Hints:
alpha+beta, 3 domains, five-stranded antiparallel beta sheet, 9 helices, elongated
Amino acid sequence: MVTTSSTTSTPTPTPSPTPSPSASSVMGSAAQALFNSLSTGSGVDTASLVTSLVQAQFATKTDALTAQSDALTAQISGVSTLKSTIQQFATALKTLTTNGTLQSQPQSSNNNVLTASAQTGAALNGLTASITVSQLASAQVATTQVAVADRTAVIGSGQLTLTLGSATYSADGSQMTGFTAGAGTPVTIDLTNSSLDGIAAAINAKKAGVTASVVTDVDGKAYLSLKGTTGQAQAFTLAATTDPTGNLAQFNVGVGATGTKMSSVAQNAKLTVDGVSVERASNTVTDLITGVKLQLTGTSPVAVSLTASSPTDALKQAITDFVDSYNEVLNTINAQIDPQNGPLKNDTAARAMLNSLRTLTTRTLLSGAAAGTPTTLGEIGIKTNRDGTLSVDDASVTNALNNYPASVEAMFSFSTSSSDGITAAMNGISLTSTSTLYGLGASLTRYNQQQSDVSKAKSDLSDQSDQMKTRLTQQFASMNAKVAAYKSTQAFLKSQIDAWAKGSN
């Protein structure tokens, strides 16, 4: 038997390192190793050849999909940036207009009698009022007169009944002289634990407008204290309606009750506002002067003056801050829709948002304003430059604040019940611009779907590439086997011919 060997060696390729080789690359490497170990075949680096052929076949499509994916990634990022930017602008503007610094604040001439604060959205410019407080609202407070040595010891058994209404009191306010029950249903209190602590807990559990607490003196003796809410109609009586032992009567509160004593009576606050006498059940009054919350702190026969002044300096700063923030937002939008390199240059929602912002200086922000009163940002000194940015005309702003302070303040005020003001306008722009139906939200949905489609196309292309690589590897393996056989036959024939030639000599 004649053994032959091929004199042609197969060159060993230098593979490029990859993070994690695919199944097809492993197959190609294994086939090439087999060819090398047999020292047979065509001498062609089939693994490199197959890879090159597959890459050549799919390179154009792969590059196109990669470019499309990169563009969509930039668009998704751009949409997210614009959504965040416009929402942050609207939120910051709302915070600025709701913190009270841009509102005229009411000022009391005597804080020992009353203090005043502005309610959200109130227009108080030019406020004047005269208020006299002759009586503060108070709550009825009754305390037991006989001390209990052990607050946890059982006192008796039965039921107590609590009734709310109106009462009259003795001159010193220590006893109730008359009581008229209110329209509410009396509250029955069952005493399952009739210790002093248990009685207090049972009363509090009913949440009927009277709170109970146990007060201990310096000697450690305990008393039951009962307190209602302020207002003449919040007086109360407490009666032991079921009292087998007779020990619960000491907690009775009302006309003729001897076990308890009043330390405060139920009464309304009494005021005179610009000559009109009124009463309120609480010392916190929010419904006398529109937009003003009054806190009554004392009484005086001398009237308290209530006035308000416009926060001119704060409004000037707010106008400057608004212009600076607007210009930052504008720069962000322009970068995204730049006609040359902007990822959102063809996005209609982004351009619609820009167009909406551009109308801010000319949009009417005050409805129903008197003729000649400024109603737009442009009319108070916020100007639009040729490049679309805003600037502040200091002279015009000063003139508007001097002559129309209420209008400027109203533009920068916030109200939940009005569509007036810059905050309402920006909220509208923000909601429209980020809408999932036609705004940036819709763009984001579209781009995400397109990105998903591209990812699927890339996955399909990868599968096709792997299939082609497998097919070509198998074809070249078959070819190499045939070439190896041909070379073996060639070597055998050459050996025979050489032998014949040597024999003929």
